[in-house]
Amino acid sequence: MTPEDKKRAAAEAAVDYVKVDTVIGVGTGSTVNHFIDLLAAKMGDRISAAVSSSEASSARLLALGIPVVDLNEAGQLDLYVDGADESNERLELIKGGGGALTREKIVAAASREFICIADDSKLVATLGEFPLPVEVIPMARELVANELRAIGGTPRLRADFITDNGNQILDVHGLQIDDALALETRINQLAGVVCVGLFAHRPADLLILGSDDGIKTLQRQAAPQLHPTTQ
Ligand code: 5RP
Predict the structure, then answer these.
(1) pLDDT at position 227
(2) Ligand 1 in reach of 135 Cβ (< 6 A)
(3) Exposure on the CB side of residue 51, measured as CA atoms within 13 A
(4) Taking the model in full, what pTM does it have?
């Protein structure tokens, strides 16, 4: 199976968890693109609407006939489905490879359940081989970069990239993240940081991985039990 086949298989499995007539939170990225396509094909107008984490996902949802609503209108969501760049076995994630980390973190925080979908290469023993994205207010870029160096990382400005919120991204190389909760808190506190792409305070509840051996699922300890719905 190619990585793309695995992503699609994980996305297909996630559609089974979506309840009819609900507003669903939708993430960003190539795995989520499969999810959006399959959601539209399999559930079509039985989805009330989506809250989207990026302009790109909104455009795709709307093109396939799924209405997109503002989070302020929708209130709390039952389910958020999104991809990740890395996950550990605690289902703490690195996200933001697609640059949508801030809105992704907002929608995840607003959702009772968070299903992460990925190909099996994304499951790692220790987070940090994938550079950690940090969204920064442009005027604070160098200030934040110096602080990130003091933490032990090597920040690089993502070239020719502006987030949906009008900010820049520093991709932090060289981190070995043993305590994701502490690092998320520490980076969040730096003046000028909008969001760090560590999802440890709000990890995923269920990780669905596409693999050569089929679908693998990891449920986070202490997370609510998630079960597929019967469509
Ligand atoms: C976007 C993200 C994505 O979920 C992450 O980059 C994974 O992307 P893909 O599904 O294309 O591998 O966090 O900001």
Answers:
(1) 82
(2) no
(3) 25
(4) 0.95
